[in-house]
Amino acid sequence: MSVGRKFAVVVRGLIIAYAVTGALLALLAFMVFRFRISESVTDAAIVAIYVIVTFIGAFVTGKKVREKKFLWGLLLGTLYILIISVVAIAIGQAFHVTSTANITTAALCVGGGLLGGMLS
Fold first, then answer.
1. What is the CA angle 66-71-72, rounded to 5?
2. What are the DSSP E strand ranges found in 1-120?
3. Neighbouring residues of 117: CB distance < 8 A, sequence distance ≥ 6
4. Percent of the chain scoring above 70 in pLDDT
């Protein structure tokens, strides 16, 4: 499989990851509205959703790529958090690259992608 096709598979994995993210965040929003969940629990749930979806996207990508799956999973996790960060900056959300929470979230997303690729 050529590198171009592998990258296309990563893009497909990203699309899957973002679709699942949308569904899970919508479910979380409903639960926050319905059950008045605290902000700290909501923040933790958002990070958990990010990790779960990067794992799923990388797992799907790894199943299709079949070579150096962990690297393609790593790429997916990295692209996922980079796109989230760029969108956050674009909509004017306060974003600090050196924030411990942002660094931790980025590491967890990259780790989720790496693990998803390895276990595929």
1. 60
2. none
3. 58, 59, 61, 62, 69, 70, 71, 72, 73, 74, 76
4. 99
Q: How many CB atoms lie within 10 A of CB 36?
A: 7
Please state whether the predicted TM-score (pTM) of the whole model is above 0.85: yes
End-to-end CA gap in the chain: 17
Q: How far apart are CA 96 and CA 98, in angstroms?
A: 5
Task: Give the contacts of 38 (CB within 8 A, at least 6 positions apart).
Answer: none
Structure-block tokens of residue 73:
């999973």
pLDDT on residue 93: 80
120: tokens are 């595929």
**Residue 48 tokens, joined:** 């958990």
Backbone dihedral angles phi then psi of residue 38, each to the nearest 5 degrees:
-70, 160
